[in-house]
Amino acid sequence: MLEVKQVSKLYENARGVHNIDFSMQRGEIVGFLGPNGAGKTTTMRMITGYLNPTHGQIWVDGHSMADNPKKARRKIGYLPETPPLYPEMTVQAYLRFIANLRDVPAREQKLRVGEAIDKLGLQGREKQIIRSLSKGYKQRLGLAQAILHQPDLLILDEPTSGLDPKQIIEIRQLIHELGENHTVLLSTHILPEINAICNRVLIINQGRVVLDERPEHLGRTMGETFEVSLEVKGPRERILTELRSLEAVAEVKEVDTAQPAASDQTSEPVSEAAELAVDQEPAAESVKLLVTSADRTDIREALFFRLAGAGYPILEMKRESLSLEDIFLKLTTDEPAASDSVPNEEVDTDA
C-alpha cells in the first residue's frame, strides 16, 4: 500500500531526514515514534505530498507521488495534529465542503457524509457549529474528513494529543475500527497507545529509521536475554541450589531479600510450649528470584519441572522483558540538544 524508498529531505545548515526506507501492507496499523525534531512530521508531510523529498521515491498503492501526485493523494486521508476545521461552519456543512474538495461525486455525497457521521459517532451534532464542539468531538470530525473520500491509507499525526482519558480511549477504539478497512500510519508520543493499537513499530531518530519491528519481537531484535522472575515457596538455599544446577540457567539473583519486621520486644513473654511449637512447625518462607537463561531460550518449563520435582511450589512466574519505553530510550538517548531547525516555511512541528 505504501512504499517509501530511500527518501531524504535535506536543508542547508539544518537537520532533515536521511534515506528513510520502509513499506506498509494493506490492513497494517503502524506506530511511528521519535523524539521531538526527529523528522516524523517531515516524513508524514512528504508521504501526503505537502513536501517534496530531496531524494527518493514515495509510492501509494502503485502511484508515484512525484509522477502521479493527484492519483496518489486520492488514496490518502490525512489528519494533522491540529485538525483542519472551519469553526464558523456546522458539522454537516463542513463535511459537504470537504466532499466537494475531495471530488466525491454529488450523487454520493449525502451517503458518504452520513456514513462518516455514523462511523465517528457524530450523530445529533450535524447542525452544531464547530467552534462549540469539545476537543474530543473536533478530533472525531477531523477523522471524519480524513475518511470521507474512502482512502486506502490514513496518516494520523498525534490524533489523541490534548484529550482527556475518556476521549483518548474513544479515539483509540475508533482508530482500531478504522484499521479494519484502512492502512494506518499513526504518529504519537503516547507509547502505551502503540501497544494498544499497532501491530508494527517504526522508530525514527535524528532523521533515520532505527527500528522497524512487530511489538512482540522487539526484545529479540534488541538482543534481549530471556529472564524470568519467580517467587518460590521453600527454603532459600535449597531452591538456589536446584536452579543453579540446571544447565539452561546462566544466573540466579535474589531480587527481594527484605525480611518481616521484628516483633515488638515489649510484648508478653512467649511460653515454653509456644516456643516448642514454633520450633517444630517453622513458618513457610518464600524467595523471589530473577533467573537468566544461558542461551536466550525459554526456560520456564525447565524451571517448573525442576522445582515441582523437588517439591517447591511456584507462587508466581513472569517473563521479564524490555518495555517499549525502555527500547525507545535506548535507541534515542543519543539525541543531541535541539540547536538546528528547518526553514520557517517547512518547520518540522513534532511535538
TrEMBL record:
Record field: transmembrane: none
Biased composition (Polar residues): 260-269
Keywords linked to the UniProt accession: ATP-binding, Nucleotide-binding, Transport
Top-level lineage group: Bacteria
A molecular function (GO) term: ATP hydrolysis activity
ABC transporter domain boundaries: 2-231
PROSITE patterns: ABC_TRANSPORTER_2
Stretches for region Disordered: 256-278
InterPro entries: AAA+_ATPase (IPR003593), ABC_transporter-like_ATP-bd (IPR003439), P-loop_NTPase (IPR027417)
UniProt record similarity statement: Belongs to the ABC transporter superfamily.
Name by which UniProt lists this protein: Multidrug ABC transporter ATP-binding protein
Organism whose genome encodes this protein: Paenibacillus ferrarius
